[in-house]
Amino acid sequence: MKLETETLRARVGEARDVSGRALLAERVSGGWWEGRLSSSALATATAVMALELAGSEPEKLLIGPGVEWLVRTQKEDGGWGDTPESLANLSTTLLVVAALRLAGGDGVGAALGRAMEWVRGKAGGVEPEVLARALEARYGKDRTFSVPIMMACAIGGVLGPAPECWRHVPQLPFELASLPRRWYAALQLPVVSYALPALIAIGQVRLHHRPGRHPLTLLRWSQRSRTLRLLESIQPEGGGYLEATPLTAFVTMALASAGLGRHAVVRRALGFLTSSARSDGSWPIDTNLATWVTSLSVKALAGVPGAVFDSRPAVAAWMRAQQTTEVHEYTLSAPGAWGWTDLPGGVPDADDTSAALLALAVPGMGEHDEAAAAGVRWLLGLQNRDGGMPTFCRGWGALPFDRSTPEITAHALAALHEWRHLAVPGMARAMESMERYLGRTQEADGSWLPLWFGNEHARGEANPVYGTACVVRYLQGLAGTRGMCDEGAAYLVGSQRSDGAWSGAGDAGPATVEETALALHALALSLPRSEASEEVLERGAEALLRLTDGGREAPAAPIGLYFARLWYHERLYPRIFQTAALAALAVRWRDE
Q1: Which helix (H) or strand (E) holds 567?
Q2: Which of 130-134, 214-218, 542-546 has maximum average pLDDT?
């Protein structure tokens, strides 16, 4: 073996240990992980508006720091991105403009002027009709986010004076929320399954300001109280719907603008918004991803020698405590699942349930057959007719963020395979159906496109590197998937950049630690042993060591896609992914 190869492999082992120790140091006092989501201009803008419209005097003290943070993070081109590191986009910029007009005071004129010039260039004008068309072009028939933006723009004076401005805000059919909730999937609602609070609140404020003469108007008025009671019943104890600042703020400003600023939903929502404000004046899009990053961290550290941390029993107990034991009020989801957070606004979902099942199977985490069986049954009950796995609810396929998706399907398949000894009825048939779904959704070039991660620099903002790396990694050890995995691995090899790293946008965007680590991890597990394969891995390892300063650094990139295409980054993602990738490389090279 060449000296430089031996040196590289030694450096990989050292970097794995450095990164593993750094990941362990990120634990909270209880022994698990919480991470830190990026601050968000979009979340900050919506929170500022909600506080301005409904907040008490003490609560309104948060508005000034929020406005200052927004002005301070305006990009050089005049717009705002979802995170300070993101590209400027129309949705966030319009929401910040609305917030600054509503609550910014006299010191924001210059920022507003630059922002409106950016909007004019991006949308082709600043007239209400032009802005409405631009938002519709971005979101299509999915009104989960386009309608809340237009509502905020109407409230913030971006669409001209009231009440005429409200004609640009589409009327959402909130009255349908009064029907039995088991019917919702069949109703083909214009919002995704998790956006019920927005449907109710924004539908009501539009009716309040512009009732019109539609034949359904009387029916809608008659259902206001009933749907408000539903809105209140699904509000979590902490006041934040889905622990999400934007969704909670949209509900708050809608009800306040409709004359319901003293409603119990608004008061609890304001409590959530004030408690989630950060010391620098900003808000994140969500409180935390504690369950998700804990599951991923446990798996990543399983490949690091000496990282059998003493808190594993406590982590396992904590994870067991996060498993749902009753039907979930928000989605009517069956017991047995996990959500992304340990906080009351979280909702059970397939990706977090799969991650938790895999983490509980790690050696040293104890025996969890009963909990695992419940999780397996939950996944089986969620599977769509197409064989794939959606995120939250079975059968909601009309809008993009409710559809089955390859990376979540592969994750569920890996979890079922890990616990196959439980022999839960229907498991084998479900796994075969998942394999067929993954075969159908593989692109001609061997890649898979994910739903919840993307790349702002890529065409269509898709991220085939992330999606393919996840599927290939999850499917290792499943005999029936070898052919599709080989094609996926070939795609990853072909998408490696000249500098050895990976980006979801190829050479059109910067390489990231997250994408490089994920691709490298998948290839370390899947590539056959050959001179060509080792060259790919060695070039990738050099790139990852360079991007992370030998495992000491973990710079985060906004590749995460939150609800309705909102970008975020999570501080722990690069640390987790690089630890796992370096561990997989070290194992492969140790075994040679």
Answers
A1: strand 566-568
A2: 542-546
